Structures are given as structure tokens and as C-alpha cells.
Amino acid sequence: MKALLLVLIAFFASSALFGQEALIKSIGNTAKEKANAQDFNTTRNNKERGNLMDDKKSKDSPAPASAPAESSEQAAPVEAEPSGEYQASYTFTSSVSYKIETASKPGQSQTINYDFGDQVIKMAANQDMSSIIDSKNGVMIMLNNKEKTAMVMSTKAMEAAMKQQQMSQGEKPAAKITKTGRTKTILGYKCEEILIESEGKKTEVWITKDAGIDVSNTFANMNKTSASQIPNEAFTEGGMLMEMNAYDAAGKVETHLLATALSKDPKTVNIGAYKITKL
Predict the structure, then answer these.
(1) From residue 155, how far is each of 8, 138, 152, 222, 229 by CA, in Å?
(2) Of 106, 96, 95, 111, the residue nearest 15 (C-alpha)
(3) How far apart are CA 160 and CA 172, in angstroms?
(4) SS3 73
């Protein structure tokens, strides 16, 4: 499981969804082992329940249980945790496509599609495979759209791993955030530039509020389970990210991201149409 977790973190640390096909294959065996284990445990538990029922029938009726002692202290309210269960379907109300170029692959580009809903985000680099992060219920769903199969896993372990990784790297100084006052138009929307400087590096982001879409919380929740290249500071003002230039310490562009399409047409993904395996 630890090896699987490291693979997942590496997956998100890469440029969006590069190498998703390899990830699906790498956790396939784990999914099968998990399914077999679930079948075995179900059989064993059913057998144990049967034995317990036989023992119960062979004994006399137990004496009435004494009433529980009253407590003068009331239990403190417990904050509800994510259920860890996926929804039957997910509705997305907006979407954006980004063209991504990296210095490690000069002359090459990748198109990543994001769909946004209520505390849920869907990512896809091609038509065959995609991923859904459901922050509300604390699950990630890997979809194989070609074979109509899906793997569901809790994001709790990934969040803990990300926190552990951040702790091992030490506390980072607060980033310097500057609204430069520069503006430009992308896809017909007026964008404002925000400069983010941290640890000798800088990132330029262009944000629009004119589209009427605010994905700041969605991206922030996604970053809890991934080493996203899009910093949380990019959304201090809310809105939609339209362009980003991330520079290395020498001032050279490491990653360039540009929105190529933006839509507010609703989409629905029916998870019930997939054969589900829980990890």
C-alpha cells in the first residue's frame, strides 16, 4: 500500500496527468488483490457469524442488561469526516482546457482538461482515462473510460503523506504576492496578473473574474492530495486561472500553462456505468 501511495503522489507531482496510463497499470494488480481479499473476508465473516448464531441458540436467554449509567458530562460534538464513499454520479458546471509546455520536454505540449463541480474536480489528458477527486467525500476515482472500469480509493492516506512530505521539507517561508496592475485579454476575458515569489523562484499567473467562475476552493482542496504545480497563492483573489509561467531559480521558464477553451456547459458522469473496484 505504501508503494501504491508513493506512485500516486508521483503521479500528481508530474505535469497534470502525464503518465496516467502507466499509473492505471501499476495499481491494477493491487486492485485485483484487494478484490480477492474482500471476497475472502466476506466468506470468513459470514462463517464466523454463522458460528456465533449457533452458539447463541445453544445458550439460555441472557439476563436483561443493566441500564447504562447516566453521565453528567455531555460528549463533545465530533466533526463529521468524509464518508469515503463515492457518489452515484457527479455533475460539473464549468470546464477549462489548458495547453501545458515544460522545459523538460522542449517543443512538446500536452492538453489537460479540467471539469469543476461542487467540491469535485475531474482531470483528463485523453478520452480513455480520467480522474475525479471528490473532496467532500474524501475519495479519488480513476476511470478507464474505454473499458468502463473504475478504481476508488480514499484520499485520507494521500493527504497524510503530503503533510508528512511537507514536514520533512521543513516550514517554507510565506510567499510574497504582488498584484502588478498589468492586464490582458485571454479567450475574451480580462485577466489580471499576480506575481508569486517564494524561495528564490517566481510564478506569474493571470486570473479572470469576468467569466463568473471561481475555482479557488476546488484547486486548494486538490492540492491537499497532490504536489500541484499551481500554487494556492494563485487564487488569493478567487476566479479562474487563465495563464501561468513558472520560473526556475535562474529565471528560465519551467512550465507554461495557457487556457485554450472555457465553458459553462454542465456535464454529468455516471459512476454506476462503471465496474467498480475499491482499494
Answers:
(1) 10, 5, 10, 10, 19
(2) 111
(3) 18
(4) coil
**CA–CA dist 83, 156 (Å, integer):** 11
Please state, rounded to an integer, the average pLDDT across all residues of the chain: 74
Domains in the chain with CATH codes: 89-278 (2.50.20.10)
Sort strands 149-154 and 275-278 into parallel, antiparallel or unpaired.
parallel
pLDDT tens-place string over residues 203-256 = 999 999 999 998 877 766 665 555 555 666 666 678 899 999 999 989 999 999
Residue 22: burial class (beta carbons within 10 Å; 0-12, 13-18, 19+) = exposed
- Per-residue CA distances from 145 to 33, 89, 275 (Å): 22, 15, 11
From 137, 141, 138, select the one nearest 157 (Cα to Cα).
138
User: What does the block give as the cell for 49?
Assistant: 457469524
The three grid cell numbers given for residue 163, joined into one nine-digit string? 503533510
Map grid coordinates 482515462 to a residue: 129
Query: Position 208: which residue type?
Result: T
Q: Which pTM was predicted?
A: 0.68
CA proximity to 145, closest of 15, 251, 3, 270: 270
pLDDT at residue 196 tops 80: yes
User: CA-to-CA distance for 40 and 275, rounded, in angstroms?
Assistant: 19
**Beta-carbon neighbour count of residue 174 at 10 Å?**
8
Where are any strands of DSSP class E within the chain?
Answer: 89-92, 94-102, 110-117, 120-124, 129-134, 139-144, 149-154, 176-186, 189-198, 201-208, 240-247, 253-263, 267-270, 275-278
pLDDT at 219: 65
Say how many Å lie between the first and final Cα of the chain, rounded.
Answer: 9
CB-based burial of residue 33 (10 Å sphere; 0-12 exposed, 13-18 middle, 19+ buried)? exposed
